[in-house]
Structures are given as C-alpha cells and as structure tokens.
Amino acid sequence: MKFIHAADLHLDSPLRGLARYEEAPVDELRIATREAFNNLVELAIEEKVSFVLLAGDLYDGTWQDFSTAIFLAKKLGELGREGIRVFGVLGNHDAQSKLTKELEKPKNLTLFPAGKATTEILEELEVAIHGQSFDQQHVVDNLAEGFPMARPGLFNIGLLHTSLDGREGHANYAPCKLDDLRAKDYHYWALGHVHAHEKVLTDPWVVFPGCLQGRHARETGPKGCCVVTVEDGQVESVDHRALDVIRWARSEVDLSQVNSLEGVLDRAGKAMRELLDDADDRIVATRLLFVGATKVHGELQAKTQWLRQKLMQLAAELNADQLWIEKVVIATTSKLDRVAVLSGDGALGGLAKSIMEISENQGGVRGLDIALSMLRDKLPPEVFVAEDGLKIDDEIVVARLIHEAKELLVGKLLESESES
C-alpha cells in the first residue's frame, strides 16, 4: 500500500512585497502553488496511491477568490476518477477562509470535523485514519490528547495540524509533545503547519512533509510531499518528493580569498551555476550573501548598486528564464589589520575605536530614535510591512543595522589608510 502525505498547500497565496522587484518572475510566482498541487495530483496517479492525506492549510487565510476552490475541486476530481480518496483536516488558515465554509467539497474528499477527533475506517485496506480540524485560527489546546487509541489489527494514522513542541517561525498552534503522540500507538502521524520537511521520529513515524511550494525567501530548498510505502502493516519507507516549480535559495559566497571585484563576480557566477545545476530545470529565486574578511570589503560597501546590476547581468547570461536574484546582502568585513589599527595610539586608531565602542542598542545611540521616526515618515508604508521589509521596530534588526554601519565606517577608514 502507498499513500501520499502533504500539507500547507496555501493555494493562490497572495504574493507580498514583489512589486518593488521589476525583474521578479511575478507571473510564474502567482501560479506556483497551483502548479505544485498539479504536480502532486500527477504523482498520486503515477504512483497509484491508495489515498492522499492533506494535513491542513489548503487555502490561505481570508483569501476569497472562488476560482481557488474551483481549481481544488477540479484537481481532486481527477483523483476521484482514478479511485483515489483524499482525507484532510482544516488548519489555522483554513479556519479563517470563507472558501472552506461556503463551497461544497468534492465527493472523494473527507474533511475531519472540528470539535473532537473522529475516525475513518478503510476496511479494504485495513487502515484507520484519525483526525480533527481547527474550528478557529488560534487553537491553543492540545488536540492530540483527545485522539482515540489505535484500532487493533489496523494500520493507524493520525492526521493533525500542529506546531508540535514548537518550531521556529511558526505560531504555537495545537501544541503537543511526542509522548502525547506515542501514547496513541499509531503507526504514522501525518502532521502539517511547519513548512520545512522533517522526519521527527521513526518509531512511530512522526512527519512534517513541509509545504508544497516555497512562497518567499525564508522558505528555501526543495518543497513537496511524502510518499509512504506500507508493507505487512508497517512503514517500509517515507520518501520526500520535490513538487515545487520555483526554488527559493540562500547562497553564501565566501570572499575571504578574493582581492578584486572581478574575483567577486567569478565567485558569484560559480555559486549561481551550482544553484541552477541543483534546481532540475526549476526557476531559482536566490538571495546572495557575501561573507568573509576581504580586501574588497570597502569597494563592495561603496558599490552595492553596481554589484547588483552586474550580478543581474551575469544571471541573465547564465539563464535569464530560470535564475532570479531576489536580494544581494553584503556581510563581509575588511581584511586589513584592524587589530593593529584599533590598538594603536594614533588619530586613526582613536577614531576607529570610538566607532567600534558605539552601543548597538537603539537607546544607546543619541538621536537614533528621531532619525528612525523621520525615516518612517519619508518612506512608503509598504517598505515596512512587506514580507522582507525594513523592521525598524525590531531591536535585533536595528542592532544589526548599527553593527553594519560601524563596520562600513571602520572599513572605509582602513581603506583610506591603506591607499594613503
């Protein structure tokens, strides 16, 4: 027996923050979640699976485009014509969605109700599926505790949308502990909510398949579903299959041995070629992060726009249709002997030390609060509310900006000294 375990479809998830990127593949990004789900349907038919499990967040919050639900019904209908049933629970985003409340569900889709965990028995397969949906967005109760004990003689599956014992970047919804899951004696727990693939446990199997399609720069790497093979009532294999059509990536480019801007472009080109090789003909949306102590640190800080333009040109030459640079981050440091300068008694050393001693706490920089307030008044609101916007109310972000400003100033001083 085979079945597919998927979660967090977020069909037609609205794209935020892309308007400021003129070169972004917006059209491809808009349909990416649909294309990924279409890939799932094709995989289910190709693998001749017995059923598909959807562990929550089919839709995306308050999104009310009924064509989304029509698309889902059409694709589930394709599975139905192949005799493939689909079992799902509603997650926190579905609980917000008007679509889940007003449209009839496809005949081959069984959605577990909210309120209490219930069980579906597939007698011909000797399988019991236990599940419970969210009835509202913010579910803070431990739903796993209310799941029934395993049915003897059957292969038991738990279908649950949960943060488990907490995962970075995800709200703490329906929290539970692994001991709560073990106590039910199920063979497989099909979880959703966490967008990164994770095999949490193998006895019993506790699995997050991750989302089908990454939606922004923080959701990097292959995204897809799990194909689960069961033999003689036991899990034989859990294989993650990539279904995404756009691959988000974060590539660190080490410049510690680079002494020229030409060398920077050479290293960046190598990194981009590796991304394309690993993407299997998908579109790659990458964030390039330049790191390391390098003699070109000052030049990079002074020529950020030039660097991005050169990198965009290089990406176009490599594959204009498949590679998009989402962002360029310069996190290098100067390779000049800053220790000697900072320990010296000269004017340059004194000035550099004064800069480095500046507090990276927002309240420790005189006039910074006023400057940030003026910045907020002058810039458009979308700069601050976008997915990857400027979070000037976040103490960690402000501390990082202060640190980067100090590094830039000291780097410029050291650069000027080396040229004199």
UniProtKB/TrEMBL annotation:
The UniProt keywords, alphabetically, are: Exonuclease, Hydrolase, Nuclease
Q: Which GO terms describe its molecular function?
A: exonuclease activity
Q: Which CDD domains does the UniProt entry name for this protein? A: MPP_Mre11_N (cd00840)
Residues crossing the lipid bilayer are none
Note whether DNA damage occurs among the keywords: no
What Pfam families would the database entry show? Metallophos (PF00149)
| InterPro entries for the chain | Calcineurin-like_PHP, DNA_Repair-Maintenance_Comp, Metallo-depent_PP-like, Mre11_N, Pesterase_YhaO
Tell me where in this chain the Calcineurin-like phosphoesterase domain is found. 1-196
Per its UniProt record, what PANTHER family does this chain match?
COMPONENT OF ATP-DEPENDENT DSDNA EXONUCLEASE (PTHR30337), PHOSPHOESTERASE (PTHR30337:SF7)
Q: This chain belongs to which protein, by name?
A: DNA repair exonuclease
Source organism per UniProt? Synechococcus lacustris str. Tous
